Amino acid sequence: MSPRLADVAVKAGVSEATVSRVLNDKAGVSPATRQAVLAALDILGYERPARLQQRSAGLIGLITPELDNPIFPAFAQIIEQGLSMQGFTAVLCTQVPGGMTEDAFTEVLIERGVAGIVFVSGLHADSTADVERYNRLAARQLPIVLINGYQPGVAAPFVSADDRAAIRQSVSHLVSLGHEKIGLAVGPRRFVPVQRKVSVFVELLGADAPIEHTFFTVEGGHAAAATLIAQGCTAVICGNDLMALGAIRAVRDLGRSVPADVSVIGFDDSPLVGFTDPPLTTVRQPVPAMGTAAVQMLLDELHGVPGPKSEFVFQPELVVRGSTGSGPRVR
């Protein structure tokens, strides 16, 4: 189907003449404008002309946990888009229970000749895992970037959301609303982001502050919240948005309401949580900025200008919606 110049021009925000130049592979168009026109073609469902269907510059592996948690597809999309704009093709490898392990995926990707690998919340986030697997990849001159879960013994660039800041923002918000008994529902203790969240939570609220470790799932959030509410908590901070949705369900199962009786805060700002009932107050991971940075770090490695082998920390943002309200002492 031949694209209509007017439709593509409107979608890309450029003139029909510019669209014509891109479709005919003419000079005089900036890379950003050319990419905008190509993206408009894809969005409108038009096939790209054969002259624009260029060969990939190479394959990049992208290993993520299960895609049930919407934050992982969000990372995958940003990273894939960033790589595509630079001519690379992302090979998405998703781990599922009982399926291939991270190590198995890594070996398959190496066999396929990938130019580098991005790991999202992989074994590097597990403080009990052997992180030498990543140093062995570095020793093979394979560029890697690791997202969320810093390990100081790994010679690679890391990209992380500031988990400590996320807890500070959440606690500050709840305290300002008048909550005095605040609980924390997070994942297993062995994960680095969990350890960071817990350390600041205890620092702010004391060693006896109520904390429940569970699974990063709706069911895990439900169980943890029920326990915290039974301990008298009027607000629950959760390790991700799925857990927060489970916490809201737990409140309702107890015959109470959110936020009138219990306030709930998530973490991630996953797609659609602004449309839940009530809309979820959460701490937004800066996924676009983190994904873009990870791509740039990997490309720098590939181009022979590697950056520091350290952690780059990105600030999250508290997004206040309808799941938090006044605590008991201010009602």
Task: Please describe what this structure looks like.
Residues 3-58 form the HTH lacI-type domain. InterPro entries: HTH_LacI (IPR000843), LacI/GalR-like_sensor (IPR046335), Lambda_DNA-bd_dom_sf (IPR010982), Peripla_BP_I (IPR028082). This is LacI family DNA-binding transcriptional regulator. The protein starts with a helix and ends in a 12-residue tail after the last strand. Helix 9 crosses helix 10. The protein has helices at 5-12, 16-23, 31-44, 71-85, 102-111, 132-139, 163-176, 192-205, 218-230, 241-253, 287-302; strands at 58-64, 88-94, 116-120, 144-147, 158-161, 182-186, 211-213, 235-238, 263-268, 281-284, 311-314, 317-319. The chain has 331 residues and is of the alpha/beta class. It has a 6-stranded parallel sheet, with helices on both faces. The protein has 3 domains: 5-52, lambda repressor-like DNA-binding domains (434 Repressor (Amino-terminal Domain), Orthogonal Bundle), CATH 1.10.260.40; 58-161 and 286-315, Rossmann fold (3-Layer(aba) Sandwich), CATH 3.40.50; 163-284 and 318-330, 3-Layer(aba) Sandwich (Rossmann fold), CATH 3.40.50. The chain has 11 helices and 12 strands. 40% of the residues lie in helices and 17% in strands.
